[in-house]
Amino acid sequence: MDKGLPDKPLILDRLSASGFPEGLSVDIQDFPDGIVIPLDKPWRWTSADAVRKVKYAAIRHFGKKNLKVGHAGTLDPLATGILIICIGPATRIAQTLQDHPKEYVAGISFGATTPSYDLEKEPDRTFPVDGVSRESLNEALKGFIGEQEQIAPLFSAKSVDGVRAYEMARKMYRHGDGSFDEKALEMLQRAKITISEAELMSFCRGGPVPVQQAPDDASSASGRIHYADVSGLDLPHAEVRIRCSKGTYIRAFARDLGEALGSGAFLHSLRRTCSGPFKAEDALTLEDALSLL
């Protein structure tokens, strides 16, 4: 199953994993084009944590200390869904995989903002929500279709004169400087992105902000990621399905959508449902991937 890729690595998804009831061969030479694992990344895990966990297991499994393992496109810690992990020779097609279009389901709450545009930071400002409705959302989403320029969040891995933007953002946050939007406009270059689809899936006029739960078997890796508890807030919230080009920040999309409605907004949940030919329903859980290794 090559999924239209230039090489033909083993695609280790739910379907193919059933063909290895006793685990994979321990000889990496049996996989000359490497292995690609579409992983369903757990909530409150960094992409690096997930890759590191798989890498350690793969090194032990194949008995190869210098085994290359990487991913094709970072997923935020508070997001779940498709994280493509490449093992061995498959790392050479990581960029090709990363260039594919992505699809997300974004949970967006209106009437407040956070410095990180998601719930890694506490809400810092509130806004009126008079203009937020199902009708206004449907109309506003039409304006996001097509090629456009986007400013990334300051809490991002964008580089500014060799320094990661999030390092500056964290310093500002510690000192109580809340001008994150202004600094982002001043310091980060606009990136061209394309949003091909933006569909309102559901809308609630008000009520508690939906809360995600970490899986019962989550390791201590998730404990390092802060999650602001906003379950007591009475805010309108929506679920939006977005299909977009690589490099699109859905947190920034939430910010811009809030502004388009004359309010503020933040991302309360995010799931990457598709990355190129890979779909979340076919992905392996971290536990399943480790059991095969």
Short characterization:
This protein has 293 residues and is of the alpha+beta class. Helix content is 24%, strand content 27%.
CATH architecture of the largest domain: 2-Layer Sandwich
What is the overall silhouette?
globular
Radius of gyration: 20 Å
Tell me about the largest β-sheet: 11 strands, mixed
Number of strands: 15
Mean pLDDT: 91
Q: Unreliable stretches, pLDDT < 50, 5 or more residues?
A: none
**SS strand fraction:** 25-35%
Give the topology string: H per helix, E per strand: EHEHEEHEEEHEEEHHEEHEEEH
What oligomeric state do these chains adopt? Answer: single chain
* Helical/strand content category: alpha+beta
Description:
The radius of gyration is 20 Å and the shape is globular. Strands 1, 2, 3, 4, 5, 8, 11, 12, 13, 14 and 15 form an eleven-stranded mixed β-sheet that branches. It has a two-stranded antiparallel sheet with strand order 6-7. It has two domains: 10-100 and 277-292, no CATH class; 102-151 and 190-275, Pseudouridine synthase. With 293 residues, the chain is an alpha+beta fold. It has eight helices and 15 strands.
